[in-house]
Amino acid sequence: MAQERKGKRASECDGPPALWTRRQTSMQVHETSAVVPSSTHSRSRSDSPIPPSEEPSLLSEEHLNIPTQERKELLAELADALETDKVGTAFWACLQVCDLDQLRELIRQAKAAPKFVSLLARECHALPRLWKQLVTRSNSSTATSPKEKSVNSRASGPTNQVRERDNSRCVFTKSSIFEVAHIYPHCLIRPTTPPNERTEAIQSFWKALEFFWKPEQIQQWRQEIFRSPNSPNDASDACFNLICMQPNIHMAWTKGLFALRPSEYNEDKSKLDVEWYWQPKQSHGPYDLVDLRKSPPSSRDLDEVDDYNIVLEPTPNNFARLKSGHRFTLETPDAQRLPLPSKALLELQWHLNRIVSMAAAGEGEDSDYDDYENERRPYTEKWVNQLQQPVISSEPDSSASNTPPTYYSPLPSYLPV
């Protein structure tokens, strides 16, 4: 397994670690875990999971990775505009979860300048890999060396807070074996790179998102993590961006094996419901080309992915696997001092974890991507940073039309068309 290859870690615990093994995976979640019956909360219809047999046919099932007819038609229109059915996995994955208005805008741009969108499609490859945070010694509940001590001390405040909030236990299994996991990736907060490279990586990530979600949505996500008016590019690492998970759950989360769909806070923000959705294994690899019209496999009723599962144990003689749609309640004893995980950042995670899964970015060795990225990173980041620098399109009829001229970024000379 990936975590075994990276070496063993000494996690905080008061007993032997729970097992998560391939072919026979069986972590147990007791009835006394963070699962709260839906009858104990008052929610709107849109926040409550509806059993598949009771779902109205007109209700969107996109949270199950089932695209609406409108999305299917728009993707077909985009394929026609690009004059190709084959695109990279990351671009295809982004189109499965992006805002429909932004998809319409991509179609408009593709019709006017198809090479521009084709290049964007190729360079989306980095997006899920920037989000795919690695479980490192600096942000997990591990023993530290003197060399690491100064690094960890900077986060001791938030780390101690999240341990207190989550009672030093995994929020899903209640196991005392846990790691402190980041929602918004640690690598985009304090990357192990020089300041100028860090800034470029962060800017590239957020600029890529702007092609797929509305500005107001991007701003809502950004303001949760970039809170300093004097340093707008410095992300905040605090309790609201942290959550306690068992190490093997943390690794599965990193690999995009599941995504958490947040609901609404209660009135005093002391509770937040999240729904667990397994993300199905894709039939393609991370470097394959995918038919733009292809629909992803559904997460409906999944209770394992790639031989990984979690066993719920309501009673000693009645075992049931954790299934997609299962609801957990995150709680805090003090919403002001120990805030819950940010709903906005969990929403960002809901989209990006599914993109990681759909793009098959969680598969294979991280070194494979590191070699690829080291070669292309300077060009990719330079190009993405240019995307928002407008130049007037040279479309032949733009001056003769009453429509304002369209703005596009130039195709960079250092990348092939």
Automatic annotation (TrEMBL):
Pfam families per UniProt: HNH_2 (PF13391)
TM ranges: none
Polar residues composition-biased segments: 22-37, 152-161, 383-402
Matches recorded under InterPro entries: HNH_nuc
Region (Disordered): 1-60, 138-165, 380-417
Annotated Low complexity bias: 403-417
Segments forming domain HNH nuclease: 170-260
Name used for this protein in its record: HNH nuclease domain-containing protein
UniProt organism field: Emergomyces africanus
